[in-house]
Amino acid sequence: MKIFSTLRSQFVVLVAAAVIVSNLAVAITLEIAREGELRGARVAFVVDRVSALFDLVSTLSPAQRERALTVVNNRFFHFEIDQTPPIADHDMTDEEKQWGKQVSDAETAGEKGQILVNVSQGTRPARNPDGRPATEADQRVGIVDIAQVTDAGDWLVTRTISPQVPPLPTDLIIGALLATILTCAAAAWLSNRVSRPLAELAAASDHVARGANAPHLTPRGPADLKRATIAFNAMSDRVTRTLESQRQLLSAVGHDLRTPLAAIRITAEFVSDRDIRSRLTRNLDELQSLTEAVLSAARAGLGEEMRRVDLASLIESVCDDLIDLGYPVEIDITGQAACLCRPNDIRRAVRNLVENAVRYGGGANVHLKTEAQAYLVTVEDNGPGIDETRLEEVFEPFVRLEASRSNATGGTGLGLTLARAVAREHGGDIVLTNRKGGGLCALLRLPRQ
């Protein structure tokens, strides 16, 4: 999910999960220890109470025993005299043998006789010590029967209920919840202190990647992030100054080159030999075109502000202009496509792609597809394509592959270089692929945001 893709959300979720798991582990450990302590305390209490009563009964006459047992009976203990052993044919388990040994060891008076124990954990119906029918809850908590033969040959039987272990105290649960909430709040504060400066750095870096001037960031957060922010500010200032100096230098070079070129062109008009004058003029035209292409590529992304335009209309206008010039261009574009871009740069990039398709492939078929995160502009031709090993090489400056695509000499070798530079400055890219049916496909991807 996108909500858990950020550093802040992942940090908070991880800390919350760690706190919850640790609290559960502590609660389980405490519960196990508490159950053990309570069980030991219950066993000791039952053993002491039963052994004390056995000692008392052994000192009384048979006539007094019934009256004494009536007095000591309560909701947790029920005593009675039976003529036959109530737990007949019962093989005691290790736990029951331990109970019997503890009762025997705890007796301090009277003659010790045979002791039988049965510990029921809700596996059979039973009566409560006070005579009421045992409910499901009563059986679930456990019933212990202990019988000892008396000096008169009767059996003294006691039945006791082991009470349920009480649930965890409410204040302990509330304390665990408060600890989790406070820890998550601290984690959220710390993650925000770290993630916000990182998000600002990422946004500023993206701003610079798109060709805009980076905003000056205020150092905040831990010391490491502050140093990173200060270094970024220094770097962006230096890059901005370098780009500005480059732009000014290129403008001066472009102005200075146009003047001598114009002077040479005027001088060439006075050459009397027509062939020489024609060759000079063609060379000057090529030099002029190369100069303008170099300046255009170097100035890409400089000067123009980003604004929102309809990408579909922009592409259609470029194609219509080329169609008016007689270029074999087909358009397959419907609807609108709002895009934040530098319109003149995008116009130049699309024009270069279409002109390449016409020059080397005999025609261009232009499509526009809208995806969730990007616009895809495809320019297809029906030419011979490009060797798979050289699809990236054609993006290098002044690289021309006329021999592999056409026998006619191409342009300056800067068209694809300029187009990819424009695409990447907008956060997109251009990819060339060979079509299965023949020809080349140029894919221009531009982000919607």
Number of strands: 11
Count every helix, treating DSSP H or I runs of 4 or more residues as helices. Answer: 11
- What's the pLDDT, averaged over the residues? 77
Model regions low in confidence, pLDDT < 50 over at least 5 residues: 122-126, 403-408
For the largest beta-sheet, the strand count, sense and barrel status come to: 5 strands, mixed
Could you name the key traits of this structure?
alpha+beta, 449 residues, 3 domains, 11 helices
Account of the 3D structure:
The structure is a single chain. The protein has about 450 residues and is an alpha+beta fold. The protein has three domains: about 1-160; about 205-300; about 305-445, Histidine kinase-like ATPase, C-terminal domain (Heat Shock Protein 90, 2-Layer Sandwich), CATH 3.30.565. The chain has eleven helices and eleven strands. It has helices spanning about 5-60, 60-70, 95-105, 135-140, 170-210, 225-270, 275-300, 310-325, 345-360, 400-405, 415-425, and strands spanning about 75-80, 115-120, 145-150, 155-160, 305-310, 330, 340, 365-370, 375-380, 430-435, 440-445. A five-stranded mixed sheet has the order 6-8-9-11-10. A hairpin with a 5-residue loop joins β3 and β4. α6 (about 225-270) packs antiparallel against α7 (about 275-300), α7 runs parallel beside α11 (about 415-425) and α9 (about 345-360) runs antiparallel to α11 (about 415-425). The chain starts with 6 loop residues before the first helix and ends with a strand.
